[in-house]
């Protein structure tokens, strides 16, 4: 049996929105500490990448940040 070395880092996040744009589905995730992630899933579900609302986005509200999720750089969860 294969066991993961680390636990799922997104398990404490709650889904607050879903958008489908082009070949991607975007999922807005927020945790109790106020961290904000957007998960991007391609149409075949073969690629799942993330972006995090950082201090460079501090002036944006979550609604503004979520308004156009296509404009961010996405990477694997362990790199953000």
List keywords for this structure.
80 residues, mainly beta, 4-stranded antiparallel beta sheet, 1 helix, globular
What is the structure about, briefly put?
The protein has one helix spanning 62-67; strands at residues 14-21, 24-30, 36-42, 48-52.
Description:
With 80 residues, this protein is mostly beta strands. It has one domain. The chain contains one helix and four strands, in the order ββββα. The protein has a four-stranded antiparallel β-sheet, with no helix packed on it. The termini are far apart. The model has no long low-confidence stretch (mean pLDDT 90).
Strand content range: 25-35%
Structural class: mainly beta
Overall helicity: under 10%
Low-pLDDT ranges: none
User: How would you characterize the largest beta sheet?
Assistant: 4 strands, antiparallel
Strand segment tally: 4
What is the typical, i.e. mean, pLDDT?
Answer: 90
Using the CA coordinates, give the radius of gyration: 13 Å
Order of helices and strands: EEEEH
Distance between the termini: 28 Å
Topology of this protein?
Layout: E1 14-21, E2 24-30, E3 36-42, E4 48-52, H1 62-67
Antiparallel strand pairs: 1-2, 2-3, 3-4
């Amino acid at each position: 049996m294969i066991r993961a070395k680390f636990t799922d880092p997104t398990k404490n996040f709650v889904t607050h929105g879903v958008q489908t744009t082009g070949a991607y589905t975007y999922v807005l995730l927020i945790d109790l500490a106020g961290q904000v992630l957007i998960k991007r899933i391609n149409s075949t579900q073969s690629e799942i990448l993330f972006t995090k609302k950082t201090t460079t986005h501090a002036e944006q509200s979550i609604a503004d940040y979520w308004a156009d999720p296509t404009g961010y750089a996405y990477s694997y969860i362990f790199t953000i």
